[in-house]
Every structure is written in C-alpha cells, then in structure tokens.
From TrEMBL:
<dbReference type="Pfam" id="PF13438">
    <property type="entry name" value="DUF4113"/>
</dbReference>
<protein>
    <submittedName>
        <fullName>Y-family DNA polymerase</fullName>
    </submittedName>
</protein>
<dbReference type="InterPro" id="IPR024728">
    <property type="entry name" value="PolY_HhH_motif"/>
</dbReference>
<dbReference type="InterPro" id="IPR050116">
    <property type="entry name" value="DNA_polymerase-Y"/>
</dbReference>
<keyword id="KW-0227">DNA damage</keyword>
<dbReference type="Pfam" id="PF00817">
    <property type="entry name" value="IMS"/>
</dbReference>
<comment type="similarity">
    <text>Belongs to the DNA polymerase type-Y family.</text>
</comment>
<dbReference type="InterPro" id="IPR001126">
    <property type="entry name" value="UmuC"/>
</dbReference>
<dbReference type="InterPro" id="IPR043502">
    <property type="entry name" value="DNA/RNA_pol_sf"/>
</dbReference>
<dbReference type="InterPro" id="IPR025188">
    <property type="entry name" value="DUF4113"/>
</dbReference>
<dbReference type="InterPro" id="IPR043128">
    <property type="entry name" value="Rev_trsase/Diguanyl_cyclase"/>
</dbReference>
<keyword id="KW-0742">SOS response</keyword>
<dbReference type="Pfam" id="PF11798">
    <property type="entry name" value="IMS_HHH"/>
</dbReference>
<keyword id="KW-0741">SOS mutagenesis</keyword>
<feature type="domain" description="UmuC">
    <location>
        <begin position="2"/>
        <end position="188"/>
    </location>
</feature>
<keyword id="KW-0234">DNA repair</keyword>
<dbReference type="InterPro" id="IPR017961">
    <property type="entry name" value="DNA_pol_Y-fam_little_finger"/>
</dbReference>
Length: 418
C-alpha cells in the first residue's frame, strides 16, 4: 500500500501556525515581489479568489472582504516543511519527499499491523496537526497514482473528511468517476485536451483504456499511468533523489538596479545560494553562467550573459563570488535599469569522484564552508554572509507583507506574556 500526504494550501496554512488570530480568516500569499497570488486558504477559496492573478488587480476586492495578505516567507515554509515531513516519516518504512508539502509513503513492513487504513490516515493527520498545526490530507492507494487520486478525493471531494482509501477496484472506480482526467497525476492540460477529443473526460474513462493503445497514441508514461489506475505498480522512486545536473539561483529585483555595487551584491547572494546547494548534494561546478537584463516591457531592452570556466571544480562561495567579480564589468552598463539577474552552475561533477590536478590546486576551503553552513543552520539563514552581499539591500525583492521568521530568527521567536 502507498500513501500521499500533503498540506492543505501549505503556504497559507503555514502563515496561520504562529498567528492564531488569523486561523479562521481568509489568507492569501503572494509571489516574489508581491506580484501575484500563489496560495489561497480554504476560507479565501470560498470567496473565489483566483490563484496567479496579479495582486494589484485584486487589491480592492481583498480589502473589501478583509482578506489577510502575506508575502512569501520562504524561511518559515522550509522549516515547517521539515518538521511536517519528520512527523509523517514516523508512520511508514519508506518515505519519498516529493515537494515542499507532499510526501509519498510506502508501508511494506506495516501492512500486517494496520487493520484500518482510514483510521490510520486520521492518526497521521492528528499527529501532524498536534505537532505542527498544519492541516493535511491523506490518500491511500495500491499504486502511487491511485494514492495521488485518493489524496485528491480526501481534500476536494465531499464525504471523505481528509482521508480517502483506494484498496480495490470498486473504491477506485467510485473516486475516479468523480475526477477530471486532468486531475490524474501526470496528465497535464495539453494532454487532457487531446484525451477529451477521444471522449476521455474522467479518470475512470482513462482507466478503461487499453494501455498498449495509449502507448501508441501518446507515450510509455501514459501507458504506465493507465496500468497504475488499474492497480498495477509501474512507477517507483529512488531511495535517494538523483543529484541535479544544473543549479540556478535567479530573482527579479524589488526595485530597478542601476549601479554596479547593487548588482554585485545581488549576484554575490546568488553565488552563496548556488554554492550551498552544490555542497548539500555533494557536487562541484566546472562552469558558471552569469546573466542580468532589464525589463522587456521597457524600451531599449538590454541583456548580457557570460560563461566562466573554473580550472578546478568548486563549491566554495568565495570562489564563485570572485568569478562574478571578474565578469561583472562585462555585464554592467551605465544607464540600464536592471530588472533581473542570476547565476547558474551548469556543468556539475560529483565531489566524491572528483580527481584533483597537481598543477592547479583547489582554492576551496571545505572546513570554512562547512562551518558557515553549520552556523547558518543553527542560528538562521544569512547569519554569516560574504562581505560583498552586505553592500546594499536595495536590490532585494519586495515583501511588504512579510510575517516574522518565527523559527529561524532569534529576534522573531514568538513571545508569550503571562
């Protein structure tokens, strides 16, 4: 048996964890630079607040209905996600964290001791709520795809109260008949339109198709999806996620950047982010791409990008920042109002199998980077930074409605007055 556990409107729910005063109020969370609505709480969903609509278009409507507005608080979300996944992991013998708010579970050694899957799902929900105050939905299925479908039913179909179980053909048909074909895991909007033209409108319609025929019409992925809907396990995950082949850090600016020092500060920050991700997955980069550009909606669009090859692969933040410092004069241009910038490590090698060069010694200081990572993990992101990151803050993204970083900053720890 498999399960998919995910949080209900995770970003919006996370905002309510340390602020009980808004737990029953509609809440929306905005994207970078407070641009668009990216998360809507169940209360706000009842007001038909659309996702991914620009905030400026909805401002008056949200104020009229007293909707709570929050900027994206990524530090808080990441920490609460880690806590949630830790709780969920206790209930299975194989866990695969699929995204920041979704986790697949497998119960190979648990099936003999679990008599009631519905009750077990409610136990998971209660434990997560008790320890993190995050509401979750739990879907059980005899394949990963059916567990995803059961999770959809648990959260969005009436009568399931947060938990749904697909353990036979009858329970599968009952739920799949109520699902659009595009609600099936792996079936996107474009593919859904093609399936609709073949009179395949519901998930149950897709389940009834011939797998081999679907493979000829579309792909092996659709074939496996049909087989999974019929109870045959075809999809699996690795015990350890595969290392990324490229790592990027990019972001648009809260205000237009017009001087070289601000641009350098932004790119140096991206260097630290990329270097940290490299170290986390045990990789090093041989090549770096650095870019910056103005807005396409303004006149005289300007864009520059450069490649930098390292003589020895690296994951040291300082080495990446020095490379940016060399490239910067070729990217910056006076008078340009820079809208976005970023860097990418695009040719990665494993640190474990990296072979050194006798004539080109590495400039990496692994102990120093390890100390920085440990301190930032213990005392909060950004406790220690590169000096070049500290030059200015004008380039940072706009977050006018940012809630406190309750769990990652000492200054933001909740205070209780008795």
């Amino acid at each position: 048996m498999f399960a998919l556990v995910d949080a209900v409107a995770f970003y919006a729910s996370a905002e309510k964890v340390f602020d009980p005063s808004i737990r029953k109020r509609p809440v929306v969370v905005l994207t970078n630079n407070d641009g668009c609505v990216c998360a809507v709480s169940p209360e706000a969903r009842k007001l038909n607040v659309p996702k991914f609509e620009p905030y400026f278009k909805l401002r008056n409507f949200l104020q009229q209905h007293q909707v709570v507005i929050r900027s994206s608080n990524y530090e808080l979300y990441a920490d609460l996600s880690s806590r949630m996944m830790s709780v969920i992991g206790r209930f299975c013998d194989n866990q695969y964290i699929y995204s920041i708010d979704e986790s697949f579970l497998q119960f190979t050694g648990f099936q003999s001791i679990i008599n009631d899957w519905y009750a077990y799902g409610q136990e998971i929900r209660l434990a997560v709520w008790r320890e993190t105050k995050l509401p979750v939905g739990v879907g059980f299925g005899i394949t990963p795809t059916l567990s995803k479908a059961a999770n959809h039913a648990a959260k969005k179909l009436a009568g399931y109260n947060g938990v749904a179980v697909i353990d036979d053909d009858h329970s599968a048909n009952e739920i799949l008949a109520k699902m659009s074909v595009t609600d099936v895991w792996g079936i996107g909007g474009r593919l859904g339109k093609k399936l609709n033209m073949m009179h395949i409108h519901t998930a149950l319609d897709l389940k009834k198709q011939n797998p081999k025929h679907m493979r000829k019409q579309f792909s092996v992925v659709v074939e496996r999806t049909v087989e999974e809907l019929n109870g045959q396990v075809c999809l699996s995950w690795d015990d350890v996620k595969q290392a990324k082949q490229e790592i990027f850090s990019t972001r648009s600016f809260g205000e237009r950047v017009t001087n070289i020092h601000d641009l350098k500060a932004a790119l140096s920050t991206h260097c630290s982010i990329v270097a940290k991700k490299l170290r986390q997955q045990g990789s090093m980069t041989k090549r770096l791409v650095v870019f910056a550009h103005s807005s396409q909606h303004e006149g005289n669009f300007y864009k520059r990008s450069f490649l930098y090859d390292f003589p020895v692969p690296t994951s040291d933040s300082r080495v990446l920042a020095n490379a940016v410092n060399e490239i910067l004069p070729h990217i910056f241009a006076p008078g340009v109002r820079f809208y976005k910038a970023g860097i990418g490590a695009i040719e990665l090698v494993s640190e474990q199998y990296m072979q050194g060069d006798l004539f080109s010694p590495t400039l990496d200081n692994k102990k120093l980077m390890g100390s920085i990572d440990s301190i930032n993990k213990m005392f909060g992101k950004g406790t220690i930074k590169l000096a070049s990151e500290q030059q200015t803050k004008t380039w940072e993204m706009k977050r006018a409605f940012l809630s406190p970083r309750y769990t990652t900053r000492w200054s933001d720890i909740p205070k209780i007055q008795c």
